[in-house]
Design goal:
- By secondary structure, this protein is α+β, with helices and mostly antiparallel strands.
- The chain has five domains: 82 residues, Alpha-Beta Plaits; 94 residues, Sandwich (Immunoglobulin-like); 251 residues, Zn peptidases (Aminopeptidase, 3-Layer(aba) Sandwich); 105 residues; 88 residues, Immunoglobulin-like, CATH 2.60.40.
- The protein is 22% helix and 27% strand.
- It contains 14 helices and 39 strands.
- The chain has an eight-stranded mixed β-sheet with strand order 15-23-25-24-26-31-27-30, with helices on both faces. Strands 5, 6, 9, 10, 11 and 14 form a six-stranded mixed β-sheet that branches. Strands 2-3-1-4 form a four-stranded antiparallel β-sheet.
- Helix 4 packs parallel to helix 7, helix 7 packs across helix 14 and helix 10 runs parallel beside helix 13.
- The longest helix has 27 residues.
- The chain is globular and about 105 Å long.
- About 5% of the residues have low confidence.
- Keywords: Carboxypeptidase, Hydrolase, Metalloprotease, Protease, Zinc.
- InterPro entries: GH29D-like_dom, Peptidase_M14.
- Belongs to the peptidase M14 family.
- This is Zinc carboxypeptidase.
Length: 800
């Protein structure tokens, strides 16, 4: 693996020639099941209470205009796109009914990437893992079985220790085994293959000075065993590196579990970690209870409780009854939590109350109006005759009682030996989008590795000593809970900004704000593309910039701790690695200001190092065509967080999209993995991108320790001048003999993904004065551009 980019690195950043055409996927309107037709009649049937499970489905479109037609049809388009023979493959979230509708509109649908049955299997798998974990927790102590305890000598006279132990509590990833001998302590690595726990081990043998007679293994679950150390008679091999413990996650975790996990870590390692409570509480995993009666647009109405569902709303019941006698008047009574609407009849005994009449009567009743608000269906006049029916009010939330319904306090774990603001800060955060279940595991695994390996891995110890690391595993806890327990494709948070028109219970899976469109830089409100004003759109930006507490929490953290210089926002899926700019104005494709050539080269060089760390786990390579600024490799994403952090506070911010395509040798094709792959695959993704996050920390460490000024050389060639550089730098220059400053012209980019442009000159003699500055702020020759010194670089070129 190469070194992270610093002023001592001489390699110029890599360049790739593969360019992926950016397609602006601007999701607007309602999901297809909620699509309102302007030609709809009062007698049109309502969509079903449940449209059936959704699937992840590829749609092949010939060109960009057809993508916009797909979006206009109301499809929930994901971030995933790729060029294919005959056009572009776009993934949409759609039920079987919605797939049939798309096919009827002429769109070319392929077989689902993730079927409803496969998604059910993933959920069942998660629940089984939780049951195993509960069973383990119920045990008083775990049983430890020592598989191997050996020492051996390798070339050069070095002695190594190797231990392997199986615990009966191994199915629980929170079980940690520690090996002790002669005053030494070592944390073991949990070995998992194909999603199954096998045993704990030293990933690589540990060098020792003297052979111990025995080792003692203790478990965090209470078990303890002592084993004699034998000599191994095999061929000695030198390990490729020191032992490094990994594998600290074993199932998809909901936000409550994730938060409890980091709290426990901070409590276990008080000298190295602490919890930072973010100030803006979320809305909470809660909703008001609702019930809808009616089967057509014109005769349907619904009620919404004033109380939250868990605070009494779910105890209410709504009923409309036929009095069975002619000439009855409309009436509303409340008895034992049941709101009973007695419908009016004419002289023949036929019902005459319309949906609008029922709504008005409920809202005029002191008893009923004290409990609920009644509404017609999506602003319809409600002229149809109300139906007889009875429905229990419900908030439609299925999470267990272990998930609080109250506003959630989002928490970060802060890791570092010196947490006083003096060290370079790094922010690693994930699950802005609720349905991306792998991403919190990446952050939990990263935190575990840093703390568990601190005492036995010198490289980890140096990272923790040199950095101030802030990890937010779940930015969007409410949406995360909703995704796991209610609607797995939930992308947004749970705050409903829709108002009466789309606040009926049939629209509940479409409520919320896309948090990665809610920030203040390059936002929809500034005219940038890639976000929607529709409250039911998958990319709804919210009613205003930073309207959501989840987004304000991120901003608060970066303002509260200005030492944060690096950030990593982890998303899924598709295997992208991106950085700013992330948005452009549609008309003319005008982007946010691009980083300087030096900053861009630093992004590239750092990315190469980080992606090598990702690849080191199982060989996954993020494609060069999916690496680069967001707008260069994906699309415009107005109001995203990486732009917020970069343009407002100068934080080098990246976006991981975990879950790279997998090569299928049988079909000879790359295959997408989806948001919630079977855990065996999710585990591998968590491991490899945790390794990538460690790579980011090493980049930040090199940045913080970089004190060496860069060095550049003037080169004249073919009527132009360029500069050779020892590392990524921004270069300012003058050609008229004047003193160069930060206001002087700078070397600019030659174009999209092309690197620096030569400075073209007319024939003549030129005195070139210049200086360079690297990403860490070191100026060439320690020159002060703001002062009066003249120790800038000089050169004279003659252009024929």
């Amino acid at each position: 693996m190469s070194r992270p980019p610093t002023s001592t690195s001489r390699s110029v950043s890599r360049r790739w020639l593969v360019v992926f055409t950016a397609i602006p996927l601007l999701v607007v309107g309602l999901p297809m099941g909620l699509q309102a037709s302007p030609e709809s009649n009062d007698d049109d049937p309502l969509p079903p209470q449940s449209a059936g499970p959704a699937e992840l489905v590829p749609v092949i479109v010939p060109d960009e205009s057809d993508v916009h037609e797909l979006i206009a049809a109301g499809a929930d388009v994901t971030e995933y796109t790729k060029p294919v023979s005959g056009g572009v493959e776009v993934h949409v979230v759609a039920t079987e009914e919605e797939q049939e509708r798309l096919a009827g509109l002429g769109f070319d649908l392929d077989q689902p990437v993730v079927t409803a049955d496969e998604m059910e299997d993933v959920v069942d798998e998660r629940e089984a893992a939780l049951r195993r974990s509960d069973a383990v927790s119920a045990q008083a102590t775990d049983a430890l079985n020592v598989l191997r305890a050996e020492w051996f000598e390798s070339v050069g006279g070095e002695i190594y220790l190797n231990v392997e132990v199986k615990t009966s509590a191994g199915a629980d990833s929170e079980t940690v085994l520690t090996v002790s001998w002669d005053g030494n302590d070592y944390t073991m690595s949990r070995f998992v293959d194909a999603g199954q726990y096998l045993y704990h081990r030293f990933s690589q043998p540990v060098p020792i000075d003297d052979v111990p007679d025995q080792v003692t293994i203790t478990s965090s679950a209470g078990g303890e065993v002592t084993a004699h150390v034998d000599e191994w008679l095999g061929e000695p091999r030198k390990p490729p590196g020191p032992h490094y413990a990994t594998g600290f996650v074993d199932h998809y975790m909901d936000p409550t579990e994730v938060t409890e996990r980091i709290e426990a870590l901070a409590a276990e390692f008080p000298d190295l970690a602490e919890i930072v409570e973010l100030p803006y509480q979320t809305n909470g995993y809660r909703r008001h209870a609702q019930a809808l009666i009616g089967s057509t647009v014109g005769n349907a109405f619904y009620v919404t409780s004033h109380a939250w569902g868990h605070e009494g709303g779910n105890d209410l019941r709504l009923a409309t009854v036929d009095p069975g006698t002619p000439g009855s008047s409309l009436g509303v009574t409340v008895q034992d939590g049941q709101i009973i609407v007695t419908l009016a009849t004419d002289d023949s005994g036929d019902l005459t109350s319309t949906a609008a009449d029922v709504v008005a009567a409920i809202n005029a009743s002191d008893d009923a109006a004290g409990l609920v608000t009644a509404s017609t269906y999506r602003g319809n006049a409600g002229g149809g005759i109300a139906e007889v029916g009875s429905e229990q009010l419900s908030d439609f939330l299925d999470a267990p009682d272990s998930v609080s319904r109250e506003p959630f306090t989002v928490k970060a774990i802060r890791i570092g030996k010196d947490r006083d603001g003096s060290k370079t800060g790094v922010l690693a955060y994930s699950q802005e989008h609720a349905r991306e279940w792998v991403t919190p595991l990446v952050k939990v695994e990263t935190a575990e590795r840093l703390l568990r390996n601190y005492s036995n891995d010198a490289r980890t110890r140096k990272l923790v000593d040199d950095l101030d690391v802030f990890i937010i595993p779940t930015v969007n806890p409410d949406g995360g809970h909703y995704s796991i327990y209610d609607y797995n494709f939930q992308r947004k948070n749970m705050t409903n900004h829709c108002g009466p028109e789309f606040s009926d219970p049939l629209a509940r899976d479409a409520w919320g704000v896309d948090l990665n469109r809610n920030f203040s830089v390059g936002s929809r409100f500034d005219g940038y593309a890639g976000a929607s004003a529709s409250c039911t759109s998958a990319v709804y930006s919210g009613p205003a910039e930073l309207s959501e507490p989840e987004a304000r929490n991120e901003v608060w953290l970066t303002e509260q701790f200005p030492n944060i210089k690096f950030a990593m926002n982890t998303h899924s899926y598709g295997g992208y690695f991106m950085w700013p700019p992330g948005a452009y104005i549609q008309d003319g494709r005008v982007p946010l200001e691009r980083p300087t050539v030096g900053e861009e080269n630093y992004f590239w060089a750092s990315s190469s190092y980080i992606l090598e760390a990702v690849q080191s786990w199982r060989g996954t390579a993020v494609w060069p065509g999916r690496t680069g600024p967001v707008i260069d490799v994906l699309y415009s994403a107005a109001g995203n967080s990486a732009d917020e952090h970069w343009y407002e506070r100068g934080i080098f911010g990246w976006d991981f999209e975990v879950g790279a395509d997998l090569w299928n040798p049988e079909t000879g094709e790359w295959e997408a993995v989806g948001f919630q792959p079977p855990f065996a695959e999710g585990y591998e993704e968590a491991m490899e991108f945790a390794s990538g996050t460690i790579g980011l920390l090493e980049v930040a460490q090199a940045f913080g320790n970089d004190r060496r000024p860069p060095r550049t050389t003037l080169v004249e060639q073919d009527g132009a001048i360029t500069f050779e550089e020892t590392e990524p730098v921004t270069i300012h220059y003058t050609l008229d003999g004047s003193r160069p400053t930060y206001s002087s012209p700078r070397v600019e980019s030659a174009g999209l993904r092309e690197g620096a442009a030569p400075i073209e000159l007319e024939p003549g003699r030129y005195t070139v004065h210049w200086f360079s500055v690297d990403a860490a702020g070191n100026v060439e020759g320690n020159y002060d551009p703001n002062g009066h010194a003249r120790n800038y670089r000089r050169g004279v070129v003659l252009i024929d």
